[in-house]
Design brief:
2 helices; transmembrane; 0% strand; rod-shaped; membrane
Length: 56
């Protein structure tokens, strides 16, 4: 495995740049998923629970 040290330095610099940007994709995915789950809960609440009325 004879790799050029300059090539490894370039790859490290690219990796550092990616890591500096942070986990924006993961945060966006978590936010979208949470919004979908909350939206489904509201749909279920308004479509199922409210039409049934008060349970006695």
């Amino acid at each position: 495995m004879n790799e050029d040290p300059n090539e490894l330095t370039k790859e490290d610099a690219k990796l550092d740049e990616i890591v500096k940007r942070g986990p924006s994709g993961a945060i966006a995915l978590a936010g979208i998923s949470t919004a979908i789950v909350i939206g489904m809960w509201f749909i279920f609440y308004f479509a199922v629970f409210l039409p049934r009325g008060v349970i006695q």
